[in-house]
Amino acid sequence: MTYCVGLLLNEGIVLLSDTRTNAGLDNIATYRKMFQFQVPGERVITILTAGSLSVTQTTIARLREAIEDPEATGETSIMMAPTMLKVADIIGNCLSQVRADIDQKMSMAQGVSASMIVAGQRKGGDMRMFLIYPEGNYIEATEDTPFLQIGEHKYGKPILDRVVRPETSLVDAAKAVLLSMDSTLRSNLSVGMPLDLCVIKRDACKIDHTRRIEAGDKAFQSMSEAWSKALRDGFTQITI
Questions:
Q1: 25, 40, 119, 176: least surrounded by Cβ within 10 Å?
Q2: Which domain holds residue 153?
């Protein structure tokens, strides 16, 4: 399994993913779940993936193939699509088709499942973020719900509910997603290091900052320990 989270804020977008793939207790591997596409100053798109690795890898491969196609159009390539909504349509259709193809080949009664978070902006357009379901349909982040999650999301959701607002700064947003991930890492063994962090500033149309956080990262450990202490201190101060 995995955990991915994206925040859509007034200042920009913050995205975080883990890299663990679990196919049983004796088959745990590391695969990147964050994929970035950009023409700096013109367009930036980041995709986070969760679920069946065969579905997500094939979907990303087909999206890249469509980008490189010399006959690509705004109907087929996410790097030529006229809006982020069209980008979500292209990715949703591709994900749905890949899932159907694999289901048919494997003759699986219940089918395979995968979902994606798609976020970005094109020059002159709005910064937008979507959660795409296995069937290809999607929902969009809004001011009322400025964050989206896929994978093992329940452990990291409480801090996002309490802290994240559209006006949250990018610095605080990065801290929030990292603490959300820390809670998930502590509660679910199917989520694991290393982590991939990405920050995109509004209207820059390029990736502002990326960081891979490896196991044993001192800054992340310090944040985790400080958060644990703050929770323990807060707990002891509450009376009933």
A1: 25
A2: 3-237
Specify the DSSP class assigned to residue 83.
Answer: S
Note the pLDDT tens digit of each residue in 67-76: 999 999 999 9
Do the Cβ atoms of 152 and 5 come closer than 8 Å?
no
- Amino acid identity of 81? A
Side chain identity at residue 152, one-letter code? E
The three-class DSSP label of residue 153 is coil
118 phi and psi, to 5 degrees?
Answer: -120, 125
What distance in Å separates the CA atoms of residue 218 and residue 232, rounded to the nearest whole number? Answer: 21
Q: Give the tens place of pLDDT for each residue, 13-39.
A: 999 999 987 645 555 678 999 999 999
- Please give the structure tokens belonging to residue 233: 């201190």
Q: How far apart are CA 47 and CA 87, in angstroms?
A: 11
Residue with tokens 């977008």: 13
The pTM (predicted TM-score) of the whole model is: 0.94
- For the domain that residue 218 is a member of, what is the CATH number? 3.60.20.10
Tell me the DSSP string of 15-78.
EEE--EEESSTT-EEE---EEEEEETTTEEEEEEEEE-HHHHHHHHHHHHHHHH-TT--TTT-T
- Is residue 226 classed exposed, middle or buried when 0-12, 13-18 and 19+ CB atoms within 10 A define those classes? exposed
Q: Provide the domain count of the chain.
A: 1
95, exposed or middle or buried, with CB in 10 Å at 0-12, 13-18, 19+?
Answer: buried
Kindly report, residue by residue over 163-201, the tens digit of the pLDDT.
Answer: 999 999 999 999 999 999 999 999 988 798 999 999 999
